[in-house]
Amino acid sequence: MDKVLGVLPDYAEYLGLCRLNQMCVDVREVYSAGAEVTIAADGVVFNGMRRHRERPWILDECLHKISDLLMISDEDVWNYGQAVREMVQKNGFDQNLKVVHAMEILAMMDTTTKGTALTEQMFYQTIDSSRDFIINNFCHSENETQKLVEEDIDSRLTYNGMKAFVKIDLANTSIRKNASSKKDYLKEMSTLALKMMGRSEGFGKLIRAAMPYHVRLSIHPSYGTAKLSICLVPQLPGFTARAPWMSCIAVDRQGANHTAHATDVRVTHQLVVENGMPWMFVEREAPPLPEWLILRNKMFEDSWQQSLVDLKSQPRNGIKVIIETDNRPQCVVDATSWQSTPNSLMTYVPEELRNTALIARVNGKKYWDLNRPLEEDCSVAFLGWDEPEGQQAFWRSSASCLAELCEQEFQCVIADTMTTTQGFFCEMSTPNGYDT
Question: Would you tell me which CATH number, out of the four given (3.10.20.30, 3.30.1020.10, 3.40.50.300, 3.40.50.11810), belongs to the domain 316-386?
Answer without folding.
Answer: 3.10.20.30
